[in-house]
Automatic annotation (TrEMBL), chains A, B:
GO terms for molecular function: DNA-binding transcription factor activity. The lineage of its organism: Bacteria, Bacillati, Actinomycetota, Actinomycetes, Cryptosporangiales. SUPFAM superfamilies: Winged helix' DNA-binding domain (SSF46785). It comes from the Bacteria. It comes from Cryptosporangium arvum DSM 44712. GO terms for cellular component: cytosol. This is Rrf2 family protein, putative transcriptional regulator.
DNA sequence: GAGCGCCTACTCGGATATCCGCTGTCCGAGTATGAGTGG
DNA sequence: CCACTCATACTCGGACAGCGGATATCCGAGTAGGCGCTC
């Protein structure tokens, strides 16, 4: 999986806590990652409609809707793409013993199981929202650290 | 995911039905794929202990144990490796607002959810065996085609 | 005819090129801000 | 004092290189089977 997914998720959590637009450069510095590359991930989030960008001074990114309405799956699919990891190439229709297409009404059993596993994976990500992540961070991090981070973001 | 996973699974199903060792070249021709590259996947299966190779004339690959004792997850992990797709880089410990390591007793919430999803995915693959796949192929494919394939393999 | 040795052909195994996608970077388009100026 | 204009600096967005891993390939090591020779 693309490593940018992790960055995108962390950025969404940060944006959830920030009340004002946050520039990509500040998010990059906060996480100590490449600003240019993080910008690309944020653009993907923007194209997916999860975040909205504002240009000019005091501009930046902010969430388009409440964090409770954004799932981890939304972010993952925005950055990694919605296509499943496994793609059936219909091996059974090739070679000297190829199954004729009219006999392939039912999908390949292998593909079916793979799709089932993929759905289970996605479902696990769909039931967790950015708000859930932010809440867990809030409860497990000392308040002093959170306040410092808020102040640093606003500065 | 590596495309060779699909080939490896199909090969295991074929080996399940074949009573004698099958050479890699024959498996490749049957599926109409690159013999050299398929050989690499079979070597991975061999290293994982799922299949056993026999050299010399009338040699080839055969399963090391009953197909009911080999899960799809075994094959997937043998070829794609056992490491999860998502790897947490501990972003929270970096940057100006880094969380001190002693405060990181609990894993990053994002990583926890990702690991949970990964376990769900693997569990979906663990409950299906090669024997299950072979049984489904047997019931959904016309007997005449199956017999032709058997004969072609033995020839 | 039986046993032995060798030879051949076939098999796998690992080392070797090639290509595509993720990673990382840059510069141009667009806009909110703020100062400056005129009424 | 207010409103308008403009210059500025900051923002995002898309286009451009670099590298690692998956893809694809090849040749050498090793072995089972078969043939021929000898006894």
């Amino acid at each position: 999986m693309s490593g940018g997914v992790e960055w995108g998720l962390h950025c969404c959590v940060v944006l959830c806590g920030a009340g004002e637009p946050v520039p990509a450069a500040k998010l990059a510095k906060l996480h100590d990652v490449s600003p240019s590359y993080l910008a690309k991930q944020l653009q993907l989030l923007s194209k997916a409609g999860l975040v909205r960008s504002t240009q000019g001074q005091s501009g930046g990114y902010r969430l388009t809707r409440d964090a409770a309405e954004i799932t981890m799956l939304d972010v993952v699919e925005a950055i990694d793409g919605p296509q499943p990891a496994f793609r059936c190439t219909e091996v059974r229709r090739r070679g000297p013993m190829a199954v004729p297409p009219e006999r392939c009404a039912t999908p390949c059993p292998i593909a079916r199981v793979m799709d089932s596993a993929d759905r289970a994976w996605r479902e696990s990500l769909r039931v967790v929202t950015i708000a859930d992540l932010a809440a867990e961070v809030d409860t497990t991090t000392p308040r002093e650290l959170l306040d410092r981070a808020r102040a640093w973001l606003s500065a």
